[in-house]
Amino acid sequence: MPAGYVCLTFDFDALSVWVDRGQLTPTPRSRGEFAAVAVPRLLDLLSRRNMTSTWFVPGHTAHTYPELCRAISDRGHEIALHGYAHENVATMTEEVERDVLDRSIAALTEVTGARIRGFRAPAWDLSENTVTLLNERGLRYDSSMMGHDYAPYRCRTGDRVDASGTVWGTPTPLVEVPVSWTLDDLPHLEFLTSPTRTLPGLRDPAEMFANWELDLRYMLRETEQGVLTVTFHPQVIGRGHRLLRLEEWLDRISAHDVEFRTVAEIADLVADGTELGRPKGNGPSH
Ligand SMILES: [Zn+2]
């Protein structure tokens, strides 16, 4: 067993995120098109290092770029769900959410032939129905929540939280492989504007990767077989200066005793009873 695991994840939003944002004039659309330029660069970069990864692909992207999606799958990477047109499921009725989920499963299956194991919510926001819907479809994992940094855990249903207090619900078979905004390239690097807000981004990627390396070092020092899950977007990370920093970071962290795994592989370990991310010593895991 390695000292820890790293999950490299890529959210291949392409044009779908601009559909969701309602920004469909030619220039925002072209920002989505750039994702398709970046994907082959990323696949080559990963192949050169013999690294596996997980790609969260909206159904809209699968239908827009079927050959690229097949190339991702054919090179041994995992393909997983990310909505149909990058819809925020937190605002949907259960009926609409079920329909979008089934259409997105159908799109990925039709285009890649891959067996779909997991889900990542667009904008990382779930509805109260999401965990039940994913369990009903036999999916293994979600990767959208933030209840831990290094330890996957079981998703619950029926939590009740309000001003009077907290009542924990019931754990389900669905495994959560948690994420964080601090481990996402988009808020660090991407400049976004809309009528209501501006995300400045455009930070030095070396600074972002230095933070992520410290998170990894802390994980290896303090936990047994922790999991560091980082999130990239091809349209963000796929530019020259960022790709060179990504390559440097991958080569540096490869010097540690870590293995690169897909999110489904990590979720399978947890489902099979392996505890990942337990604090070293006798401390409680949560
Ligand atoms: Zn996304």
Give an account of the 3D structure.
- This protein is α/β, with parallel strands linked by helices and 286 residues long.
- The protein has one domain: Glycoside hydrolase/deacetylase (TIM Barrel, Alpha-Beta Barrel).
- It has helices at 16-21, 26-49, 59-64, 66-74, 94-112, 130-136, 185-189, 205-222, 234-237, 240-253, 263-271, and strands at 4-11, 54-57, 78-81, 118-119, 141-142, 153-157, 160-162, 165-167, 170-176, 192-193, 198-199, 223-224, 226-232, 258-260, 278-279.
- Strands 1, 2, 3, 13 and 14 form a 5-stranded parallel β-sheet that branches. It has a 4-stranded mixed β-sheet with strand order 4-5-9-6.
- Strand 10 (192-193) and strand 11 (198-199) form a beta hairpin.
- Helix 8 (205-222) runs parallel beside helix 10.
- The radius of gyration is 18 Å and the shape is globular.
- The two termini are 22 Å apart.
- The protein binds zinc ion.
- Zinc ion binds next to loops.
- Zinc ion is lined by residues 11, 13, 17, 82, 86, 122.
- One of its GO terms (biological process) is carbohydrate metabolic process.
- It comes from Nocardiopsis ansamitocini.
- GO terms for molecular function: hydrolase activity, acting on carbon-nitrogen (but not peptide) bonds.
Summary keywords:
NodB homology domain-containing protein, TIM Barrel, Glyco_hydro/deAcase_b/a-brl, four-stranded mixed β-sheet, binds zinc ion, PgdA-like
